[in-house]
Amino acid sequence: MSFAPTSSSSEQPSKKQKKSDGEFFPNVPKIEYKGEDSKDPLSYRFYNPEEEIMGKKMKDWLRFSVCYWHTFRGKGADPFGFPTMKRHYDDESDSMENAKRRADAAFELFTKLGVEYYTFHDRDIAPEGKTLEESNKNLDEMVDYLMELQKKTGVKLLWGTQNLFSNPRYMNGAFTNPDAHVLAYACSQVKKVLDINHKLGGENLVFWGGREGYQSILNTDIKRECDHMATVFKMALKYKQENNMTAQFLIEPKPREPTKHQYDYDAQTTIAFLHTYGLEKDFKLNIEPNHTTLAGHDFEHDCIISSKYGMLGSIDANTGDPLLGWDTDQFPSDPKKAALVMGAVIDQGGLGSGGLNFDCKVRRESTDDVDLFIGHVGAMDTYARALRIAAKIREEGTLPGMIKERYSSFDSGFGKKVEEGTATLEDCEKYIQENGEPEQRSGKQELYEMILNHYV
Ligand code: XLS
Ligand code: NI
Ligand code: NI
């Protein structure tokens, strides 16, 4: 694809640029849908927000969201190297002025992309102070500022969350820290995030337990730690209910990293945890495909399994790299994989209050401002194309029909009795006495794969 880069460093507006000077990304236009034949990387080929697919607008199926941390706080540092990116709107200071300028740039990006949602951690939007009071004061000032930007642009908050993993105080965990003092600090942060999330109209609230797990089983009382985590969730629920808050609570599973073992290992483990502690009605899951693959599953696995159990609340729509061992948080670019995820979303009738949040960062080597846009445009188009593919599969019905047929022995007679839960072991034995050896039935995996490719 031919593309003239628009932001070599010599073309960047000077560092002294004030927001009154106008745009932060002057070389990026409002991104428009130009159709499949477009060769312009700053256009959508598949994402046509108002177009209806299976009775709903594309934008309402997809509910795209930009994350603040990677896109506006990430600078390309990795475990082996320093930051590589300079942003002209970010003087890298901890000042409130800088935080506000960053927010202005962020809302310009959201608006130009045509994304209606964003997400943040408390510490992404406002500098952490020396005390909790100071941090909360900074947050309050920024929340007022963000509220104005939300009003001006119509962009909404998909979810807020609390950063309980960066500050050294959380090195041994937050809700699962062996020290009650640290737990209290973490919970104070949760309380504040509940408040600001509510004030900004956050539709969900995420708990990701980055350090809720262990590095060594030798120094860890697993049962007490899991009990404490559940107790904190109950405190948060109580506060939510008492204050008439409506945000859907979401837990984001991840098997490891930064801890060696994280308690919210994957979707099934987290669902079991919620049931164990009687929390299953008050929480859903926020599934991140890159975490799913880190847990040893396929990209789509956790989305599908949580959806089947009515627990898929939202998606952190990123991807990993099979050759790298960590959460590389790449922008998704595989429409076939994304189509399996969108299939789960269609089958459950949409994401409800959730969305497709790009918990993604441009590569460390992608240092131009415009790369931030290209990453999102490509990922949005991947999911828009995936929605079209998944819808077509359902409208034509070949694959769903094949699956239905595969299980048809459970639709009547003996099989139906099994599904209804009324069959006994004696019935099973009698069935075999009457019918003998089952016939071999091919799984036909290659046929399924071939047919899926017809749609991609
Ligand atoms: C980290 C997580 C994190 C959560 C929010 O791996 O994906 O970014 O989404 O705390
Ligand atoms: Ni995430
Ligand atoms: Ni992640």
UniProtKB/TrEMBL annotation:
Which key words tag this protein in UniProt? Carbohydrate metabolism, Isomerase, Metal-binding, Xylose metabolism
Region Disordered: what ranges? 1-37
Among InterPro entries, the record links this protein to: Xyl_isomerase-like_sf, Xylose_isom_bac, Xylose_isomerase
Tell me yes or no: is Mitochondrion among this UniProt entry's keywords. Answer: no
GO biological process per UniProt: D-xylose metabolic process
Origin, by domain of life?
A: Eukaryota
Name the Enzyme Commission number(s) assigned to this protein. Answer: 5.3.1.5
| UniProt catalytic activity | alpha-D-xylose = alpha-D-xylulofuranose
The molecular function GO annotations come to: metal ion binding; xylose isomerase activity
| TM annotation in the entry | none
Record family assignment? Belongs to the xylose isomerase family.
PANTHER family in alphabetical order:
PTHR48408, XYLOSE ISOMERASE (PTHR48408:SF1)
Query: How is this protein named in the record?
Result: Xylose isomerase
Q: Which organism is it from?
A: Chaetoceros tenuissimus
Upper lineage is: Eukaryota, Sar, Stramenopiles, Ochrophyta, Bacillariophyta
